[in-house]
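Amino Acid Chain and Its Fold in Token Form
===========================================
Scope: a single protein chain, as residues and as a discrete description of its fold.
Amino acid sequence: labelled as such and written in the usual single-letter residue code.
Position: the record begins directly beneath this header, with no further notes in between.
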Amino acid sequence: MADPRKLLPFEPRRSADDSSKSLGQSKAVNSQPIPKAVANRMARRVAIATGVPSVMGMAVFVISYLLVSKQILDIPPGITLVSSGACFLLGLVGLSYGVLSASWEPQPGTLLGLEHIKPNIARMRSSMKAQKASN
């Protein structure tokens, strides 16, 4: 059965087998959606773990500008660049930390959630293996 709508130029052409799979008629993959409470926990952790270092990275530029323009300190541009880059890199690490440290239990975990990182990595790996096996 062909698609009733016209395909966009960047959409791949589908065969009859592909269209039946997209309609959910193929065998289901062993996957469950992320519960809403867990997704909210992840979003909160990501916002904090990514937002704080990113704001620090931007603040490095402002503070460096103020110190140099008021002739309080002579800061080389390389130092400003490296320190702001380190803050943004820390924000990137915070993105992964925020997702992997969230508790999947109904009740929230500890403040830092370090004990949830190892089980969440195992959960992520098994999900990727199941997805690879279904393809």
Summary: The radius of gyration is 23 Å. The longest helix spans residues 36-69.
